[in-house]
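Supplementary notes (optional reading)

For those who missed the lab, this is the record we used. Protein: Amino acid transporter transmembrane domain-containing protein. Length: 310 residues.
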Amino acid sequence: MIIFGGIQLILCQVPNFHKLSWLSILAAVMSFAYSLIGLGLSIAKLATEGVEAKTTTSATVSEAERFWRICQAIGDIAFAYAYSTVLIEIQDTLKSSPAENKAMKHASFVGVSTTTVFYLLCGCVGYAAFREHAPGDLLSGSGFDHPVWLLNVANVCMAIHLIGAYQVFAQPIFSLVESSCRQRWPEVKFVTMDHQITIPFLGGTSFQVNWFRVVWRSAYVAVTTVFATVLPFFNVLLALIGAASFWPLTVYFPIEMYIARAKVLKFSFSWMCLQALSLVCLLVSLVAAAGSVAGLIQSLKTYRPFKNEV
């Protein structure tokens, strides 16, 4: 985690999202790679061992815990589909021809369709291979343990993907904070002034450095790294973030903007259908949030970071 934070500390100094397009493409390729490896290993496990007819988890897991696990899984799914936080930044990288709205609609359709196919394949085949013993990460922990070389390749791909994903989600936050500070304190040179620094060992290459950007982004990376190290509950925290962000950003605001733009009449059939959709998604988010909190509490109860193991 410290190595991961160190890499992010360097990448976060890149001024804007546009200069990291190569990293986004690389992360997408890595995502396909480790997903295909996980899918292939699950199919191989099914081919050699077959589908288990019964589950043995029922004896050790109560119905209440099973319900909370289902709710937490819904939160993970919500996080996986909630890309609205970076939607504007993605649209800004599009060219003017064809029209941005048409290109974005096509890209969203292809992207969501492709990820849905992979989610369903990995989820269903993985569950068939492991049943209710399926771990949060099929490629490590209590998932697969061989072949080791292929698992190492998959985990390297996963690490590279997470490096890119961190930047994709962090860059909009950086941009928002920095633009707000520039507007609020335009006379403070520490915030607004860029300094040109020449790197002698790179052929005299020059970089524009803003000291506020360096301090603020470094502090952000440090805090998130410490938080991730202290609370290494990846799936639970993702589910909680997904539950908290899914309804307002992915459902409520887009629906309200569409109603305002299309001038949908209040209490009309279309208006009621849209409001019903928003209400259902709100209930799903609340259930997912409850399951995530229950999972986090359970993880904290069983977490022993300083326990000596023989």
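If you only remember one thing from this example: The radius of gyration is 23 Å.
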